Amino acid sequence: PSSVSAAFQEYLRHLGLQEFPCGLGSWVGIWEGTAVGRGTRLPLPLLSPCPQNKSRSNAHRSPGAEPAGLEEAVPPGEESPEALLELLRDRHSPWALSPDCSPLDRLLREVAVLAPELLHGSGVFQAVRSLRILDRGVEEVDEGLLRFQQLEELVLIGNHISRVPSGHLPRTLRVLELCCNAVCDLQDLCAQPPPELQHLGLGYNRLCGPSQEKHLTLDFWPNLVSLDLSFNSLTDLLGLVSQLTTLQNLRILVLQGNPLALTPTYRGFLVDSLPKLSLLDDIYIWPEERQHFCGLARQPELIMSGARVVVSIGEMKGLPNPEAFQQLEVGSEGPVITYSYCVTYEF
């Protein structure tokens, strides 16, 4: 799927919300005389559909009506919602959810049993508060996300997203995790950012300064508590800190893996510049450390704008020995073979 919406539709098909024991309709399970109960090993059923059960097909209730509950009387020959739920919960059932399923998996499948009509149309989007789409090849954060009017957490780790139009993000978002994507610019994300966002994860992307720092201020993220910018290409430590100081609620910051983290006074300068910070690069800031670096924020001249890296090569294997060519006599008509090598370092 190329978009978040397409990935979500594929996820719904995988859940089988319209298949037994979920969805609307009637199902008669022939259990060969074995009772359906908690902890009972269930034989594989022989299922045969029958005309719709009135107790399970009330898909056109009035808007104010309550969904069918477990306490409602079930006509003879029909399964109760409680029995159908047991098929999802009993670990011996062929329809049981896997132990490592997500809370959203369990929620949607159980809602599809108790009140399947709620998952028709836009109802399924109202039930989702946390959406996690990991490593699915998603490239587009599309406008379809606006249908998730109750969404609080959006996790899109390991995809191929390069642009994040903030106008396509639900305003209810509190967590936005975009780690391991291809985001190279924050301008689109900051056009209309979710006002209640508390965590922004942009680690392992393609952000490079100094043009990005201007988007990391209180004007865009008034409630931000946690910010992950690790393993990008940010270089301007002074410029970044000048913007981060406006984030009054910031308590967790991850910057490791950026070139700016190579400066000798990197940690001390950040600790003293952001007095409300509790965690820096996943390391707790103790009062003793803060006291040790006290005053460093007032000495920006100690921040070096460059770094020198010395690389020593101890041994190289698999290359011709140059001493063998030095044995040729001067003026010899023998062939002269020249080897050249290119070594590339990535930081």
From TrEMBL:
Q: Where is this region: Disordered?
A: 47-76
Q: What is the lineage of its organism?
A: Eukaryota, Metazoa, Chordata, Craniata, Vertebrata
What span is annotated as the signal peptide, if there is one?
none
Q: Which organism is it from?
A: Drymodes brunneopygia
This chain's protein is named LRC43 protein
User: What UniProt keywords are attached to this protein's entry?
Assistant: Leucine-rich repeat, Repeat
Gene3D superfamilies listed in its UniProt record: Ribonuclease Inhibitor (3.80.10.10)
Gene Ontology CC terms: cytoplasm
